[in-house]
Design goal:
By secondary structure, this protein is α+β, with helices and mostly antiparallel strands. It contains 5 helices and 14 strands. α1 runs parallel beside α4. The longest helix has 13 residues.
Length: 272
């Protein structure tokens, strides 16, 4: 499990990070349009796939996660919000924030948003849809499953980095045709995912100008479920300051999920 819940306010951030850390591996064969990958980087990725569960990890088709999402302000935690998240690979997700009476659903290029307090059901904005796609692009699953290959991205080896006393992380980088990049760190000893690092544009304080800000996802407190390495905590940092935490209390793999779960409800009354 390597997930992706992320929205502005508590809601937006969860949806980006949940999918980032939960997904089934898909490694398509290299095509003529795909740049050759760095051999050392490829070996690190293949080792990581085995470390997170190998064939069992690759066999995951759906993920159901329950827990709490906590928003942080200036590094200080807020009140946790309970959520239930449903993922069907490769690109469908539904997240229910039960204490906020908010539900958001995505299926491919479409998305919708239900606000129980305002009693509204709307299509997601272009910004919300972009956030969902951004989560797919930056997640560990994108790397381990090879989705990046069809997009013409390049995989390269960056080197080893300090990761605490007596520990190092091996680092690889995905670079897309538009110049966007994500670096993934894996424990040099166990080969397990440790960090995902990238930059995203944010408005400067008290300004309409944008600047690139470093962001980081850290999977923590892993347990093994059905043979799959599963982090139960995912922390997100922006500019070196923690901005959120996802804390699971239950994760289930390969539970049947109906297509209707992700489709936009016909009306407010149809939402369950």
């Amino acid at each position: 499990m390597l997930a992706h819940i992320v929205m502005k306010a508590p809601v937006k951030f969860i949806s980006l990070i949940l999918f980032v850390l939960l997904a089934p591996p898909w490694c398509p064969a290299q095509t003529a349009n795909t740049p050759p990958a760095d051999d050392k980087a490829e070996k690190i990725v293949q080792r990581a796939i085995q470390a997170v569960g190998g064939d069992r990890y690759l066999a995951v088709k759906t993920v159901t996660g329950r827990g709490f999402f906590t928003d942080y302000k200036d590094g200080v935690s807020g009140i946790p919000t309970r959520f239930v998240d449903y993922i069907a690979y490769p690109d469908r997700e539904r997240t229910e924030f039960t204490s906020l009476h908010v539900v958001q659903g995505n299926s491919g290029d479409k998305g919708w948003f239900f606000d129980g307090a305002a009693k509204t059901l709307k299509d997601q904005t272009s910004e919300q849809l972009e956030d969902f796609k951004f989560g797919l692009r930056t997640g560990f699953e994108n790397l381990l499953h090879g989705w990046w290959r069809k997009l013409g991205a390049t995989l390269s080896y960056v080197g080893r980095r300090e990761a605490g006393v007596g520990r190092r992380n091996e680092t690889v980088r995905l670079t897309y045709l538009d110049g966007f990049w994500i670096e993934y760190e894996f424990s040099a000893i166990e080969g397990l995912p440790a960090k995902a690092l990238y930059q995203r544009k944010h408005k400067k304080p008290d300004s309409e100008e944008f600047e690139d800000v470093a962001e980081e996802d850290r999977p923590l407190k892993p347990i093994t479920i059905d043979g799959v390495w599963t982090p139960f905590v995912i922390d997100h940092f922006r500019g070196g300051i923690q901005t959120s935490r996802i804390n699971y209390d239950k994760v289930e793999y390969n539970q049947p999920l109906a297509d209707s779960l992700f489709a936009k409800p016909a009306s407010l009354k149809a939402i369950k």
